[in-house]
Amino acid sequence: MPKEQQMAVQYMQALTDHDYRSLRRFYNRDSVFYDKTANVTYKGGRHIIDFFERAHEGVLEYKFNIEHMFNTGSLVVMIGNYHLRGPGEQFGKPGKIIEIAIPGVTTLKFDMNTERMTEQVDLMDYQTMSDQLQTQ
Length: 136
What we know:
Number of helices: 4
Shape: globular
Helix content: 25-40%
Low-confidence stretches: none
Distance between the termini: 39 Å
Number of strands: 6
Structural class: alpha+beta
Strand content: 35-45%
Radius of gyration: 15 Å
Order of helices and strands: HHEEHEEEEH
């Protein structure tokens, strides 16, 4: 597996494990997280971590199943499903435990000299998420 893909897998493992200490090592003040589908952008490690801590609050299980991964230089593209299990309050379903699988594409760009993530772009299928929430 190319070094870039190894770094991407390590990054995603830290993210889905809520291992913010390890995740911080991937960021610097110029790192950018962009959820293109939701049109949300955060810049700088501190702001990105703050966002993930809020977004993952109370989440019981979180993983990303990579179905396909490839890279062009320092850009790694991962196609798969984000699986979440957590409190329904975050999704407008109080008192329930929600389980959803959101298809998506995550791209990670790395600075291979510093081994930092310079840009993460998520393209998520929020319509599928909405459809799944309606049935729960």
